[in-house]
Amino acid sequence: MEADVADNETLLGVSAVYLFGRELSDLLLRGDVYQPLMGNPLGANGFLRGQLSTDDATLARIYAFSFEGTFVELSRPAIFVVHGSGLNPDDPPPRNVDGDIEYDRLSRSPGSSARTGLGSQIGALARDMKVWIYEKDDISMRLDAQTGSLEQILLAAEASTDPRGMASGGLSRSGGALSRSGGVMSRSGGFIPRRSGDGD
């Protein structure tokens, strides 16, 4: 659940995770398709189902996060389930008694630590960046989107003979000469088949 943003520092702040990103405008998360589970089957805690089925659940591309006073940019932005449209990580601009913006204070003051989780901030976030604040134990979902030709994102990733490939490489999932469950190169034995000897 999204943590409360307040001016006061509380004990809960030590476990807060601040997600910085932008809500996706072209994907709609339909929480109404997640029906409540019937009965209480073992292991069905429903935490993720609960996060996805709320009315304000949405998807956002997250570029960075902060935790325990450290700001970390993701090596590649990822899509996360978030709730609501996010908060502005910057405080409202400081104004004097006449209502004019105090630009000298604005230029040297980062956003509130309650909105960023940071004691100091070098540089500035993009103008349209939002922040979502969660507890570190909250359940969520991460989606890593890839683009490219089918040869790159499907064939090379799934049918490569390179053992360092993304998936099983040349080891097919269902069978074949180099299957996971048998064949010439079995799961348990490199080039040595499970059964050996001339008398077999």
TrEMBL record:
Phylogenetic lineage: Bacteria, Pseudomonadati, Pseudomonadota, Alphaproteobacteria, Hyphomicrobiales
Positions with biased composition (Low complexity): 169-190
Region named Disordered: 164-200
Keyword vocabulary terms for this entry: Plasmid
Name of the molecule in the record: Uncharacterized protein
Source organism (scientific name): Rhizobium etli (strain ATCC 51251 / DSM 11541 / JCM 21823 / NBRC 15573 / CFN 42)
